Structure formats: C-alpha cells, structure tokens
Amino acid sequence: MELDIIFKIAGIGILTAVLHSVLKSVGKEDLASLATLAGLAVVLYMVIDLLSELFIHVRTVFMLY
Q1: pLDDT tens digits, residue range 5-43?
Q2: Alpha-carbon distance 58 to 19, whole Å?
Q3: Which residue in 10, 8, 28, 6 sits closest to 19, CA to CA?
Q4: Domain residue ranges in the chain
Q5: Global pTM?
Q6: What is the spatial distance between Cα 41 and Cα 21, in angstroms, rounded to a whole number?
C-alpha cells in the first residue's frame, strides 16, 4: 500500500478540521458544516477509487485460474 494516499487523506482531514474551526469561530456554523461535508466527500471519492482498483486486481487474479 502506498503511503502517499494515506498522507493525502490525513492532509485533507487536517485542512478540513482547521477550516471548520476557523469558520465556527467566526460564527459561520452552517458553512463550517458544509466544509466538513465537502472534505468527507473528497475522501470518500478517493477511497471508492481505491476500492475499485482493488476489485479489478482481485478479478484479474481469479481470471488467471
């Protein structure tokens, strides 16, 4: 497994947490929730892409036999 994808997910999480806390301290709770939801959507998209690659690799392994 590549460490690059783990660092990307962690970076998105840290950026989302900082953005959420800044927006919440300013008084924009609704935008803070929206930013958190957007960060979650980006990470879920990355994970779904990785899962699709995993299923492709599993399918090719079982096609050989």
Answers
A1: 999 999 999 999 999 999 999 999 999 999 999 999 999
A2: 38
A3: 28
A4: 3-63
A5: 0.79
A6: 18
Phi/psi for 33 (5° steps) reads -65, -40
Residue 2 CB neighbours (<10 A): 8
Q: How many residues does the chain have?
A: 65
**What is the 3-class SS of 4-42, one letter each residue?**
HHHHHHHHHHHHHHHHHHHHHHHCCHHHHHHHHHHHHHH
Cα gap 49→23, rounded to integer Å: 30
Among residues 55, 32, 36, 35, which one has the least CA distance to residue 47? 55
